[in-house]
Amino acid sequence: MERFSLVLWDIAALVLASSAIVAVVAYVRLAASRKQDTRLATIDKQFQLMLAGARDAELGRVMTGPRFADATDDQVKQHFWINAWMLSIEAQWRSGMLTPAHLALSAEYLLSSEAGRRYWERAREARGQILEGDRKLAELHVVFEGAYEVGLTNPVAPRQRS
């Protein structure tokens, strides 16, 4: 009887340990999900601000300070419109909605215009400074840097889909 009781205690300890492991795994997954949700909500707020700057050049200048002192109203609006597009691409890349091929094509299209190249020239340094510890953002940056460099040496329209 005593041996049977020890076996029951061992089974109870295993069930309790298993339950604790399941609870920890569930907590970690929930925390990661909340972090991702917060990140995407923040990107959405940034997106809304970029659209506001795209509609109103003076508001765009307020958000950027002296970096756009020499830019025309149209250039300021284009910058913010393209930045909103960039944030959308970033959110899609982070969430897994874009494949690497789609990301490369998006970069190629976005940077194929003069306004797109001008955006990257203004934004690339600042974006490059925030890459540390963010693998997805670093991957995105490398793809856009590559598309930008190709566009400098071969400024043609994006490839046609076959």
> What count of helical segments does DSSP give?
6
Helix content: over 70%
Mean pLDDT: 84
The general outline is elongated
**Share in β-strands:** under 5%
Low-pLDDT runs: none
End-to-end gap: 77 Å
SSE order, one letter for each helix or strand: HHHHHH
Largest sheet: none
Structural class: mainly alpha
Gyration radius (Cα, Å) is 24 Å
Please count the beta strands (DSSP E, at least 2 residues each): 0
Describe this structure in words.
The chain has 162 residues and is mainly α. It is built from six helices and no strands. The chain has helices at 2-55, 57-64, 73-94, 100-110, 114-128, 135-153. α4 (100-110) crosses α6 and α5 (114-128) packs antiparallel against α6 (135-153). The termini are far apart. The model has no long low-confidence stretch (mean pLDDT 84).
Notable traits:
single chain, 162 residues, mainly alpha, elongated
Architecture blueprint of SSEs:
Elements: H1 2-55, H2 57-64, H3 73-94, H4 100-110, H5 114-128, H6 135-153
